[in-house]
Amino acid sequence: MAEATHAGAHAAHAGPKHDYYLVDPSPWPLAGSGAALALTAGGVMWMHGSGAGGYLALLGFAGVLATMFLWFRDVLKEAYAGDYSEKVASMLRIGMVLFIASEVLFFFAFFWAFFWGALVPPEIFPTSWPPEGIEPIPAFEIPFLNTMILLLSGCTVTWAHHGLVHGDNETTKKALTLTVALGILFLSLQVYEYIHLVHLGMTIDKGIFGSAFYMATGFHGFHVFVGATFLLVCTVRAYRGRLNKDRHVGFEAAAWYWHFVDVVWLFLFVCVYWWGGSLFWTWPGIQ
Hints:
Blueprint: H1 2-14, H2 28-47, H3 51-80, H4 86-119, E1 128-129, H5 142-165, H6 169-199, H7 207-239, H8 249-275, E2 281-282
Antiparallel strand pairs: 1-2
Helix pairs in contact: 2-3, 4-7, 4-8, 5-6, 5-8, 6-7, 7-8
């Protein structure tokens, strides 16, 4: 009896004395970094005419997908095991806010480049904006349709959150499924738009306009893909009954990220498509 009491006391003293969860060593940060490096390096090689670059980019893309899936799996296992206290959940929310803030600065760089090319008097630039030889991008065709799609998806993800906090799992499942479908539709239309623009000769090598346009809209499309994947994981969890109305940090992070994607697209539509791509002007005093 004394030995049992001593063992229980020892186990109690051996437990953690804090509210934080110390994760086990994980291979996914290193694996994800390597896959992202292969994806970007392969993309650069492919754009410079290297046949091997396309295969390397595909390999890196597959690695990114595998890392996302396996990392999500491990995080969900930790959550289901009860490893995340309220303090840990709070820190996860703060981490997501800081991550989104860093993404804001990431896109700010592309907007800076675009406006610099449009507004700074040119010395080594063409004398009009968009530069001569570039067909203006019709803002109120596919871009406007994609704007409506993303705004609708912002409503559906909010609808899903409303259903979750009120314990209506059926509504959450339907709304999340619709949100993911709208994200896929957005990406499909953007791919179609890119194919059409390249056919018209609007490529990434068309000076600062082409570079800024494809970098900003292309990276936004990648963020839509990441956000849709994030929400797809939440959708699968909803169908398995794994979303809890009292604590759903993963869903909250996915919804915040999706709203961020929506807001960035609104700026892209107004500044790049409408203002910067559909209007021609020449610099005063420059022939």
